[in-house]
Design goal:
There is one protein chain. The chain has helices at 4-18, 34-46, 53-65, 71-78, 80-90, 96-106, 114-120, 126-137, 144-151, 157-169, 173-183, 189-197. It is mostly helical.
Length: 199
C-alpha cells in the first residue's frame, strides 16, 4: 500500500520536471497547500515509532528538497526526542543537503548528540563537516581544545573560521587568546574579521 508521503513526493517529482529550476530554493515553489501537505506527511512519518525503510528514504528526500526553508529541520529542532531515531539514520544520507541540516539540528539534543557530531567531523563534504563542527561547539565538549587545534589549521578557510567557535567553547582564556592571535594573521580576510569581532 502506497503511503501518503510516497504519493505526495511522487506528485512533487512530477511537478519538478517542468518547474523553473533557475533559482536557489526552486523546490519550494511547489504550489500551496501541496508543499505544506508534503512537509506534514514527512513530519508524520519522521515522528512515527517505526517508519518503514521506504518512508525513511522519502523523509530523506524531503529534507534535501526543503533545505532552503529548513521546514523539517525547524520541526525536528523543537521535537528532537520524537525525531531522534530518524535523525540518526539521516546522518548517513547520500544527500549533503540533508546531512548538514541534521548536524545543525542535533545539538538541540544536548550531550547525547556529542558522539554523533564527532563522527560528523569526518563527513566527506566540507560544508557538512563545518555544520557538524559548529553544532558540536554549542555543546562545549571536554576535548574542545583538541578539536579546535586540529580544525583551526584546516586547509578550508571557512573551516578555520568555524573552528574559532570551538576555541571559545573550550573556555580556556589563554588558549582562546593564542588561537585568536594565530587566526588574526590568517590569509583569508573573512577569518581575520570573524576572529576580531567574536568574543
Amino acid at each position: 500500500m502506497t503511503s501518503d508521503l510516497k504519493r505526495r513526493y511522487k506528485e512533487w517529482e512530477e511537478w519538478a520536471i517542468t518547474a523553473d529550476q533557475s533559482d536557489d530554493g526552486w523546490q519550494e515553489d511547489y504550489p500551496m497547500p501541496k508543499w505544506k501537505l508534503l512537509m506534514d506527511a514527512a513530519i508524520y512519518e519522521m515522528t512515527r515509532q517505526f517508519p518503514s525503510q521506504e518512508n525513511i528514504q522519502f523523509i530523506d528526500k524531503c529534507w534535501a528538497i526543503s533545505q532552503e526553508g529548513q521546514h523539517l529541520a525547524d520541526y525536528a529542532r523543537t521535537h528532537i526526542d520524537q525525531c531522534w531515531d530518524v535523525l540518526l539514520l539521516l546522518t548517513e544520507s547520500e544527500y549533503s543537503d540533508t546531512r548538514w541540516q541534521v548536524y545543525d539540528v542535533l545539538s538541540s539534543a544536548g550531550q547525547k548528540a556529542e558522539n554523533v557530531l564527532k563522527k560528523g567531523l569526518q563527513d566527506p563534504d566540507d560544508y557538512c563537516k563545518r555544520r557538524a563542527l559548529l553544532s558540536l561547539a554549542r555543546l562545549c565538549p571536554n576535548d574542545a581544545k583538541e578539536i579546535a587545534d586540529e580544525f583551526c589549521r584546516h586547509e578550508d578557510p571557512y573551516m578555520r573560521q568555524a573552528a574559532f567557535n570551538m576555541v571559545i567553547a573550550s573556555k580556556d582564556t589563554a588558549f582562546i587568546e593564542s588561537i585568536r592571535q594565530l587566526l588574526l594573521q590568517d590569509p583569508a580576510w573573512h577569518v581575520r574579521r570573524a576572529v576580531s569581532i567574536q568574543q
